[in-house]
């Protein structure tokens, strides 16, 4: 039998690196993120799981790699645990015996779509949502899919088995699948088709790694729905039964019990920056609410359903409720926002007995049981039951056995647990029924050592014994559980520096994973720690004392690009990006962690010259065209705020904006050299003290110009003026009455004036990139499109992901933190532009322009990245020079500086400064340093002393070596004169701020260089 493997040998690691390259991870901290699933065990039970952390995580891209992985595992007898969306809760992705977690989500290609036979062959790791979107674009659709479609995968559903939307018509997951290719535990590849699929279904990765699946499809149609309320489960049952008997051609039947409805009505709506962007949720009646879904073309055939509902004692609900429920299809865990924790139980019962099951649950369980039901086509209904609780309360332990009571009730009425898995291994026979023996035989024959996902189907002895005992003494457990009450928790106190509202969200997060795949911080880097789900998990682990908040972890919060994609994807409507934003100053200012190093230099530039490009404040207004200077220098109702990048680097943005406003007859003013950066870089770098200073300056200068409406060109400036400044102004007691608009919002109202003047055509295919800070954060989607489309000659193409779904360019934090990752993220976005054969990618954000232009340069792409304002102004007949080269030149300094601030590169540079550093050492230390050269073993003694000595010595050494350091920096970083001139002012303070946190990273590189130097000199 396979042993527990918690670490791999050097040789084994090398072999895995040979197979997966950078797609394998051995870092202890990262592995910790791959040791759990969505379930939460009670604190007294959890230890029975043992140490469930893999020794490595490998991202498998294709079947060939899966074969190599399984062969490797066989060679060394190492367990392999397939993991896809990790949205399941039966322990199937938990590596209870360590080994290698095989992340399947990278095996996600669509290999073939056959329109005639209505089949699609796909990589097993493709997410349902992505597949469905691609198929819908081709007029096709899958037959059925789980409600976790935004995160779960095709392979995961077959491996876990289940029912979902569409199961009322098409049945269980395996019925909608034609065949599957599997890498068996022996390393052979076998195709399971027809009836054989049953031996694979629900085996949770124990049969092998499913690499490819051929799905059955249907033609795409809009989904329509009828929602109805029923006073009790009996009338609901009657309606479903009659609909089935009368062959009403429904695709899906799902329902909620009144407890679920009650909580759903209370869940908060989505709020972006204090605004709700959606129409309020309609109130659901406190009843059993059932949604009957069908394809649009069956409208007439479904009509009799309304009579059936009424005859069964139900009532048809208004269409707006049905529409709302369809929109909320994939948000079944939404109610967990008010959890914070849930005790789950999921059972399958015959529809025939459903009402009696409900009755018995109501009579026997004192905690409110929230139930979501989903019908299959075989007369069975799945009841997903949750009881609200708090996992940190001790009562969670005593209330948890109530889930066994629900299973007991289901069994009493001919039902069973939905899935067996790690926790209910003793029930595997009832779950797999006729296939049980075949599955066991197959496993014994192909995997006698239990290499593939060990213990998942056989269970973990201590844990299963405890659960079996719990079942035996279920009446007692129920009695105690019923007395436990809801262990609700009030989150009122800050804990370990985490504000209470963030702690609450961390415990509410369902770990569903909807936020993972579309987070650019995640897909740029590829590891769970970088995803929002991972960060919530970390916070819980940190609060529980199982992980530390160090610089590495701090960086995961600081590296978030602030794109707000997670906020739009979260089914719980959690304010995720805002939470990381709140944490930034906590980490940087309160916990004194290091911000992303280049931001320290930017901060000094901001404090000195009020811009991030280390240029001179006096040059800030140089962009203003001569003929406009006088016109826009006075007071006005409208104030154009250009921002740093448009003022100093991509001046075409500022000039273009001014030209458009002027041609549209808008009288406006600018702050000129009184303008400061909007402050967003400091807000996101966690340096809120610097942010506050410049924000105050901007507000006061704008007021002194008599401005009522602030117009911005930059989305980040827009977000600051529109959302963040008012919030801060209120907090600081500053009067703030500005209306804030992007120029596109102002100009669409003036198109009657502007449009006739747009004469120069742009005969190109142009696509549009929505920028996050004005798109998802502000909902300004249509005005820029309208403006762009007004330019004659343009053939406009939308990118595949647009508006709320638009992918981030990867700029802001990632470009400054990790340029190669930023370029990768940009390239993913630019691939979409290639797909629509765009000549020009137009956008309105200076940062997106920098990001895309540097990526185009890096990857040598044939693509033109242009600013909307510049495009429009050129069409108005102005000669607006292209700023691409200015962007690249300005970025080069940043790029080289970022590179230099990497610990290893800093150490290399300091090697050059070694003579000055030695000279700068306090005199009492010099003899000891010299002894390294003469006394054997002294170098070994010195190594451990360095981490203690250097932080003490550095503050006195640094000023002395600074002149040489500045020269060394100049050698490595190409700089325009204005930056060179300012470096003596900027660098010392930046270094002073960076050194305390940077030194621990520097010392491992610096110490050997220092010892080497002393020995030689
Ligand atoms: C909000 C929400 C809604 C849900 N709705 C439904 C629903 O409607 N119906 C339903 O049935 N379930 C539902 N679930 C549970 C879960 O989403 C499903 O079981 C889903 O199919 C799991 O897919 P996954 O890709 O996340 O797989 P994972 O959770 O990653 O894995 C599940 C099991 O399959 C194995 N596995 C995964 N991929 C492979 C592979 N390629 N080869 C071999 N083994 C593999 C894993 O080892 C594991 O044992 C829901 C969960 C959530 C959070
Ligand atoms: S804001 Fe964007 S980058 Fe940040 S966590 Fe959310 S999705 Fe990821
Ligand atoms: S943050 Fe939201 S979307 Fe992400 S895992 Fe948690 S609940 Fe799911």
Major sheet strand order: 14-11-13-12-16-17-15-18
Low-pLDDT parts are: none
Helix content: 40-55%
The helix tally amounts to 44
Strand content: 5-15%
Euclidean distance between termini CA atoms = 59 Å
Number of strands: 26
Radius of gyration: 31 Å
List keywords for this structure.
about 1000 residues; alpha/beta; eight-stranded antiparallel sheet; six-stranded antiparallel sheet; 44 helices; binds iron/sulfur cluster
Task: Describe, in plain words, how this protein is organized in 3D.
This protein has 1017 residues and is of the alpha/beta class. It is 46% helix and 13% strand. It is built from 44 helices and 26 strands. The strands form five sheets. An eight-stranded antiparallel beta sheet has the order 14-11-13-12-16-17-15-18, sandwiched between helices. Strands 5, 6, 7, 8, 9 and 10 form a six-stranded antiparallel beta sheet that branches. Strands 1-2-4-3 form a four-stranded mixed beta sheet. Helix 14 crosses helix 18, helix 36 (819-835) packs across helix 37 (846-859) and helix 37 (846-859) crosses helix 39. The chain is globular. The mean pLDDT is 96. Residues 519-521, 532, 560-566, 576-577 line the site of one iron/sulfur cluster (SF4).
């Amino acid at each position: 039998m396979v042993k527990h493997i918690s670490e791999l040998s050097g040789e084994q690691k090398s072999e895995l690196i040979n197979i997966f390259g950078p797609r394998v991870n051995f870092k202890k901290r990262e592995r910790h993120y791959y040791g759990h699933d969505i379930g939460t065990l009670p604190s007294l039970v959890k230890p029975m799981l043992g140490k469930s952390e893999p020794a490595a995580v490998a991202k498998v891209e294709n079947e060939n790699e899966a074969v190599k992985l399984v062969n490797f595992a066989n060679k060394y007898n190492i367990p392999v645990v397939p993991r896809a969306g990790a949205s399941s809760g039966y322990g199937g992705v938990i590596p209870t015996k360590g080994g290698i977690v095989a992340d399947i989500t990278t095996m996600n290609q669509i290999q073939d779509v056959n329109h005639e036979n209505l089949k699609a062959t796909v990589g097993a790791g493709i997410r349902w949502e992505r597949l469905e979107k691609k198929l819908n674009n081709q007029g096709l659709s899958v037959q059925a899919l789980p409600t976790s479609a935004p995160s779960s995968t095709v392979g995961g559903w077959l491996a876990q088995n289940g029912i979902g939307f569409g199961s009322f018509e098409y049945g269980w997951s395996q019925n909608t699948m034609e065949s599957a290719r599997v890498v068996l535990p022996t390393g052979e590849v076998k195709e399971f088709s027809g009836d054989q699929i049953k031996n694979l279904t629900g085996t949770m990765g124990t049969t092998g790694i499913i690499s490819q699946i051929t799905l059955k499809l249907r033609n795409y149609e809009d989904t329509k729905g009828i929602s109805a309320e029923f006073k009790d489960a009996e009338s609901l049952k009657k309606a479903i039964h009659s609909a089935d008997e009368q062959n009403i051609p429904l695709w899906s039947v799902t329902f909620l019990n009144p407890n679920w409805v009650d909580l759903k009505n209370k869940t908060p709506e989505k709020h972006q920056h204090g605004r709700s962007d959606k129409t309020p949720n309609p109130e659901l009646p406190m009843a059993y609410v059932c949604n009957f879904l069908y394809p649009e073309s069956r409208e007439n055939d479904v009509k009799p359903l309304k009579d059936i509902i009424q005859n069964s004692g139900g009532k048809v609900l208004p269409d707006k409720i049905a529409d709302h429920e369809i929109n909320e299809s994939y948000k079944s865990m939404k109610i967990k926002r008010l959890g914070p924790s849930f005790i789950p139980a999921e059972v399958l019962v015959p529809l025939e007995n459903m009402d009696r099951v409900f009755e018995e649950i109501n009579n026997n369980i004192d905690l409110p049981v929230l139930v979501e039901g989903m019908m299959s086509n075989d007369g069975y209904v799945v009841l997903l039951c949750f009881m609200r609780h708090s996992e940190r309360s001790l009562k969670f332990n005593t209330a948890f056995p109530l889930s066994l009571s629900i299973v007991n009730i289901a069994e009493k009425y001919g039902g069973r647990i939905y899935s067996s898995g790690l926790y209910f291994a003793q029930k595997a026979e009832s779950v797999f029924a006729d296939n049980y023996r075949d599955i066991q035989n197959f496993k014994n024959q192909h995997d006698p050592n239990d290499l593939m996902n060990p213990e998942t189907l056989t269970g973990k002895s201590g844990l299963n014994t405890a659960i079996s005992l719990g079942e035996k003494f279920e009446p007692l457990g129920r009695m105690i559980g019923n007395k436990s009450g809801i262990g609700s928790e009030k989150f009122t106190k800050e804990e370990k520096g985490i504000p209470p509202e963030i702690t609450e969200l961390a415990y509410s997060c369902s770990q569903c994973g909807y936020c993972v795949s579309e987070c650019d911080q995640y897909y740029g880097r590829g590891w769970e720690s970088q995803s929002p789900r991972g960060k919530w998990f970390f916070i819980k682990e940190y609060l529980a004392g199982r992980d530390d908040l160090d610089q590495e972890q701090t960086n995961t919060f600081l590296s978030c690009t602030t794109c707000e994609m997670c906020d739009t994807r979260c089914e719980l409507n959690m304010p995720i990006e805002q939470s990381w934003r709140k944490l930034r100053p906590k980490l940087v200012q309160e916990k004194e962690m290091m911000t992303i190093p280049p931001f320290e230099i930017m901060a000094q530039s901001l404090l000195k010259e009020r811009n991030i490009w280390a240029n001179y404040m006096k040059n800030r207004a140089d962009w203003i065209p001569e003929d406009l200077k006088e016109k826009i220098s006075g007071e006005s109702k409208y104030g154009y705020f250009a921002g740093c990048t448009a003022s100093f680097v991509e001046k075409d943005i500022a000039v273009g904006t001014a030209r458009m406003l002027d041609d549209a007859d808008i009288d406006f003013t600018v702050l000129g050299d009184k303008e400061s950066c909007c402050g967003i870089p400091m807000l996101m770098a966690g340096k809120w003290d610097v942010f506050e200073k410049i924000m105050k300056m901007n507000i006061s200068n704008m007021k002194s110009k008599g401005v009522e409406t602030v117009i911005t060109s930059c989305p980040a400036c827009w977000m600051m003026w529109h959302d963040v400044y008012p919030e801060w102004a209120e907090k600081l007691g500053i009067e703030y009455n500005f209306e804030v608009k992007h120029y596109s919002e102002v100009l669409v109202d003036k198109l009657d004036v502007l449009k006739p003047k747009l004469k120069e055509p742009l005969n190109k295919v142009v696509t549009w990139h929505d920028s996050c800070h004005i798109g998802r954060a502000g909902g300004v989607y249509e005005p820029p499109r309208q403006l762009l489309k007004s330019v004659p000659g343009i053939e406009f193409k939308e990118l595949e992901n647009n508006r709320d779904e638009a992918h981030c360019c990867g700029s802001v934090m990632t470009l400054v933190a990790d340029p190669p990752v930023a370029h990768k993220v940009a390239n993913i976005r630019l691939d979409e532009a290639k797909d629509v054969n765009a000549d020009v990618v137009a956008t309105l954000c200076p940062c997106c322009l920098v990001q895309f232009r540097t990526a185009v340069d890096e990857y040598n792409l044939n693509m033109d990245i242009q600013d909307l304002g510049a495009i429009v102004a050129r069409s108005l007949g102005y000669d607006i020079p292209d700023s691409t080269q200015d962007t690249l030149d300005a970025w080069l300094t940043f790029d080289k500086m970022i590179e230099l601030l990497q610990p290893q590169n800093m150490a290399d540079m300091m090697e050059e400064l070694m003579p000055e550093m030695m000279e700068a050492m306090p005199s009492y230390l010099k003899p000891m340093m010299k002894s390294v050269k003469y006394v054997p073993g002294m170098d070994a003694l010195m190594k451990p002393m360095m981490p203690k000595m250097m932080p003490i010595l550095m503050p006195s050494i640094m000023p002395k070596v600074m002149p040489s350091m500045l020269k060394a920096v100049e050698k490595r970083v190409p700089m325009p004169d204005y930056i060179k001139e300012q470096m003596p002012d900027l660098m010392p303070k930046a270094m002073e701020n960076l050194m305390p946190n940077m030194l621990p990273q520097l010392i491992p590189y610096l110490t050997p260089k220092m010892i080497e130097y002393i020995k030689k000199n």
